[in-house]
């Protein structure tokens, strides 16, 4: 790591432990709350998938007919498993599927219902001779999204129960509006280097990222692949249709229902214990922070009260000494009376203004007040001086 990286890490560490770890405790509490929210979502999804029926595709119509009240609107949540095949049309024979418009993989030549082709431009990570770590190409020429181009082609397809249709049932798969990732298989993966140009030398010298290779990938959903579908099933124009459920983590998967439940259960356990551990750490850290600051506040209050007692003791001792020594009370000329009490002779001058307007007792009280100011000019008085007659 460079010195800049070490400085950044040290700054982050100082911020994390600021306030006796209060910021770190709050961060851990947020992480714990996030883990609990994800745990509740994962547990809810697991319960729904466990309770969802997993009938054979040929039994879906009977299941929907037996639960008409539950199937109104979006449909009934089911889990089915079957083979991927092209959607049959009115003028085509499903048995002779070679005549249908299947997609052909350019990398493997396999027939598929979904083909995704991706091309990624890879850039160098060298910082240049000046040690600049900023990729000017990414800032001013292209964004990270523009470095990757992807195309997705698909045709309507169905899930067919084991065997051959029409001797077995099938269900249409509706991908419209599905936020779930597709379980595609990579069939083509090639890295093609890019020949450098004269412009590349200047890009490398100034630390500007330059392309070094193109990564071509092709992923497909092949015909005949065994898939598990989790979604809302309903009858649409006499045909069974399965649509994704956005609040569930899976729609199409090559895992079985038991494998999906096992994975969700493992994720739920991890999220649960993560929330417990992070929550315990955050509670302990925040409790320690509150306790430490409470102790500091009590210590500050104790010291403040001690200073106040010392100040009052000094004032009382000064007053006592003045009363024992002086004869400032009694017959005092009117022009020499203290402007505060109007009883004793003026004996103390304030610093820095120098006004001789108070007796010793009143000057001490003014000096040790919360906001000491001269009674005449209202300037802040830092101290007072006892004035003696010659």
UniProtKB/TrEMBL annotation:
Superkingdom of the organism of origin: Eukaryota
Positions of transmembrane segments: 270-294
Domain RING-type: 338-378
GO biological process, one term: protein ubiquitination
EC number: 2.3.2.27
Catalytic activity entry: S-ubiquitinyl-[E2 ubiquitin-conjugating enzyme]-L-cysteine + [acceptor protein]-L-lysine = [E2 ubiquitin-conjugating enzyme]-L-cysteine + N(6)-ubiquitinyl-[acceptor protein]-L-lysine
This protein's GO CC annotations: membrane
InterPro entries hit by this protein: MUL1-like, SPL2-like, Znf_RING, Znf_RING/FYVE/PHD
Membrane topology value: Multi-pass membrane protein
Gene3D superfamilies on file: Zinc/RING finger domain, C3HC4 (zinc finger) (3.30.40.10)
Keywords of this entry: Membrane, Metal-binding, Transferase, Transmembrane, Transmembrane helix, Ubl conjugation pathway, Zinc, Zinc-finger
Localization (cell): Membrane
GO molecular function, one term: ubiquitin protein ligase activity
Pfam families on file: GIDE, zf-C3HC4_3
EC primary class: transferase
PANTHER family: E3 UBIQUITIN-PROTEIN LIGASE SPL2
Name assigned to this protein: RING-type E3 ubiquitin transferase
Organism whose genome encodes this protein: Dendrobium catenatum
């Amino acid at each position: 790591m460079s010195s800049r990286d070490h400085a950044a890490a040290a700054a982050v560490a100082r911020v994390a432990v600021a306030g006796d770890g209060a910021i770190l405790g709050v961060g851990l509490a947020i992480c714990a709350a996030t883990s609990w929210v994800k745990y509740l979502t994962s547990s809810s999804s697991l319960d729904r998938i466990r309770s969802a029926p997993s009938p054979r595709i040929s039994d879906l119509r009977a299941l929907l007919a037996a639960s008409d009240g539950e199937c109104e609107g979006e449909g009934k949540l089911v889990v089915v498993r079957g083979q991927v095949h092209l959607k049959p049309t009115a003028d085509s024979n499903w048995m002779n599927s070679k005549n249908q418009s299947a997609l052909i993989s350019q990398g493997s030549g396999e027939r598929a219902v979904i083909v995704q082709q991706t091309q990624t431009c890879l850039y160098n990570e060298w910082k240049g001779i000046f040690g600049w770590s900023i990729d000017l190409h990414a800032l001013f020429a292209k964004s990270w999204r523009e470095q990757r181009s992807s195309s997705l082609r698909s045709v309507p397809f169905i899930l067919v129960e084991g065997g051959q249709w029409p001797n077995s049932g099938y269900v249409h798969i509706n991908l419209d509006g599905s936020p779930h990732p597709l379980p595609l298989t990579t069939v083509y993966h090639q890295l093609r280097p890019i020949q450098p140009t004269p412009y590349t030398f200047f890009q490398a010298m100034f630390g500007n990222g330059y392309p070094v290779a193109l990564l071509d990938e092709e992923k497909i959903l092949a015909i005949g692949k065994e898939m598990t579908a989790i979604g809302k099933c309903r009858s649409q124009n006499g045909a069974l249709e399965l649509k994704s459920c956005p609040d569930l983590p899976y729609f199409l998967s090559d895992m079985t229902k038991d494998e999906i439940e096992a994975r969700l259960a493992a994720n739920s356990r991890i999220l649960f214990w993560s929330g417990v551990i992070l929550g315990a750490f955050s509670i302990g850290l925040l409790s320690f922070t509150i306790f430490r600051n409470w102790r500091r506040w009590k210590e500050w209050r104790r010291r403040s009260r001690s200073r106040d007692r010392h100040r009052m003791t000094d004032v009382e001792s000064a007053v006592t000494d003045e009363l024992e020594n002086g004869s400032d009370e009694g017959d005092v000329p009117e022009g020499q009376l203290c402007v505060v009490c109007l009883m004793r002779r003026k004996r103390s001058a304030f610093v820095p203004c120098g006004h001789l307007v108070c007796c010793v007792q009143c000057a001490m009280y003014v000096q040790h007040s919360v906001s000491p100011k001269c009674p005449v000019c209202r300037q802040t008085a830092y101290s007072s001086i006892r004035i003696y007659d010659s």
